[in-house]
Amino acid sequence: MEKLKMETKDLIRENIEKLAEMFPDVITETRDEKGNLIKAVDFELLKQELSGRVVEGDGERYQLTWPGKKEAMLLTNLPTNRTLRPAKEESMDWEKTGNIYIEGDNLEALIILQESYLNKIKLIYIDPPYNTGKDFIYKDNFKQSREEYLTGSGQVDGDGNRLFQNTESNGRFHSDWLSMIYPRLKLARNLLREDGVIFISIDDNEVHNLRKICDEVFGERNIVGQITVQSNPRGSQASKYMADVHEYLLIYSKNINSFTIIGHIKDKNILSEYSYTYKDGRKFRLLGLRQRGGAWRREHRPNMYFPIYVNPQTGKVSLEKNNEFTVEVLPKRPSGEESRWTWSKKKVLENRELLVGRKVNREGLEDFWDVFRIDFLEDEDGKMKTSKVKTMWIDKEINYQNGRTEIKELFDGLDIFDFPKPTYLVKKILSTLEDSGLILDFFAGSATTAHAVMQLNAEDGGNRKYIMVQLPEPCPKDSEAYRTGLKNISEIGKERIRRAAKKIKEETGTDIDYGFRVFKVDSSNMKDVYYRPDELLQQNLFRMIDNIKEDRTAEDLLIQVMLEWGLELSLPMEKKNIFNKEVHFVAGNSLAACFDEGVSEELVREIAREKPLRAVFRDSSFAGDAARINVEELFKMLSPTTEIKVI
Ligand SMILES: C[S@@+](CC[C@H](N)C(=O)[O-])C[C@H]1O[C@@H](n2cnc3c(N)ncnc32)[C@H](O)[C@@H]1O
To answer: How far away, in angstroms, is 444 Cα from ligand 1 center?
Structure first.
């Protein structure tokens, strides 16, 4: 029974807990007056979280810090006028699919997705650059170090942005990597559902820093585990001193109290232990009732030391000795030391039919009686029970060579991508959760995650959907990928999805979602005057010039509006022709949009009759203030709950 505390609530502690939920990174450790470690708030970090500029200050506290951390933090809170533009011609099954492929820098993509995917993602898997000295390139977007960067050897991405390699000779080797990963993790956390989780592949180069930074971003209490993955059983001869055989997966939940992890299907060795068949046909094995692991002594749980009586003919058990139950069994080790049962007397009484007494013979020991419990392979609904996910993954399919082989098989024997992960690894990650929900990978590379999502959905009938984000990082001119016409890594990713979809469809014949909608990170659809009208001398002038860039389509505008209104990119979109104008409807009546010029009163009436939740028009399509007010009046009359906006 819980004891009354007989004191008032510790409000400070409660407040700190509330802050920790919102900003896990501002929670740190300090000592109270008695020298005990307690949680405290790092007010400098909190100030930084609430400010749009770098806040100076340098107190002594427990945290991982590096030059550029505050600038990196700032990046996550800055608004952007970048947007996503649809690329229908590169998409597959645009109308029906729930999958998304985003081409562009993931920092920008994550910022753009904040409204539409806030608290929506079930699982994030990322395999970021490990910072090996060769693999990490980044965009020149940290102002402070621009000059330093400019001395580096620049490459250029599809948009003409300069990309730089992070080599060990760079004095800010670890700092640059941390400044790259930190804002991305912070933004990614916002997208996770309360019961969501992130799996991050990493190796010894940065695992120590990543763990610290994840403790900060996700909160130390939200760590689920750190798995050692045997990716190279033969050992890498390229390693400096010792042959690396493994890498890691770091796993953090958004909120450990809401998160549940499903165990993995038991491995073959364990399955073979289920050799008995119960009267209802279920397979079972026998497990000793005596406590085996820690806290096994009688004095650890004195109540769990009691005799159980066995009927030597039937093996049935009882807590009472009588003519039928004659053999007394006590929880003792073969050595004679007093131990304890794993079940209480009450549990034994209630579940007697699940216990069995057996005579055991062990080499070198006299025969003795022991009590076992029945452990079924399946639960009563016939669902296979699972084992807890292990902290070491050694399956042979996880070998990194398998990733290469899979790609080669898809691309007619060509080696078009260095170090893709095996789909088996990603499937194993995905199967720790239920079989639906949104999966995000914002370092998509060759799109192994998309491949694994499709493959697993085809195998287990699941309904997972994915969002991939990948920079159009150029492929070297002498690479096999470039020679086959795949000029950058996004091209590789999209082509892989198309080929994997075809293969899975052919091999399994299943009718799952093989499509994907492609979007590209680009500059806003609006001209600069849209964001800085005050820079124009006369307000009237603003009205007269068009504020939308000439090369942008109605669909471009629709997507930017959807993102601002927090609508998901996979929603069904329909285009209707009403009074000779193009009207777009998103998810039925969630949004109605008309970006044509010269919107008439009868058209507005028609749209309002559909009672959309939101409606948007082009500001310049109204003749003047009177026309604008008229539209509002019409909506007030016909659909008063519609939220109306103009661009
Ligand atoms: C280690 S690879 C991921 C490989 C992937 N797991 C696979 O199986 O193919 C990391 C990828 O992240 C991409 N990347 C690096 N920085 C990026 C950024 N800022 N935005 C988007 N992608 C980025 C790189 O181009 C590279 O393809």
So the answer is: 5
Q: Which atom of ligand 1 is nearest to the CA of 473?
A: 25
pLDDT at 5 over 90: no
127 lines ligand 1 (CB under 6 A): yes
CB 584, CB 558: distance < 8 Å: yes
* Ligand 1 atom closest to residue 184's alpha carbon, by position in its atom list: 19
- C-alpha to C-alpha distance for 259 and 242, rounded to whole angstroms: 37
Mutate to test the pocket of ligand 1, among 107, 111, 248, 443 (most ligand atoms within 8 A of CB): 443
Separation of CA 129 and ligand 1 centre (Å): 7
Answer whether residue 168 shows pLDDT above 90. no
* The pLDDT of residue 504 is above 50: yes
| Phi, psi (deg, nearest 5) at residue 80 | -125, 150
CA dihedral 86→90→92→97, nearest 10 degrees, is -20
What letters, b where the CB count within 10 A reaches 16 and e where it falls short, cover 148-186? ebeebeeeebbeeebbbebeeebebbbbbbbbbbbbbbb
pLDDT tens for 538-555 read: 554 445 567 889 999 999
Query: Does the CB atom of residue 445 touch ligand 1 within 6 A?
Result: yes
Ligand 1 atom closest to the CA of 421, numbered from 1: 8
Q: What is the CATH number of domain 82-263+389-521?
A: 3.40.50.150
Distance between CA 109 and CA 258 in Å, rounded? 27
Does residue 292 have a pLDDT over 60?
A: yes
**C-alpha to C-alpha distance for 257 and 262, rounded to whole angstroms:** 15
Mutate to test the pocket of ligand 1, among 470, 487, 495, 497 (most ligand atoms within 8 A of CB): 470
Residue 105 CB less than 6 A away from ligand 1: yes
The predicted-structure confidence for 202-253, as pLDDT tens digits, reads as follows 999 999 999 999 999 999 999 999 999 999 999 999 888 999 999 999 999 9
pLDDT in tens, 56-66: 766 666 788 99
Kindly report the average pLDDT of the chain as a whole number.
Answer: 88
Handedness of CA 251, 443, 196, 99 (dihedral sign): negative
User: Where exactly are the structural domains of the chain?
Assistant: 11-63, 82-263+389-521, 268-376, 536-646
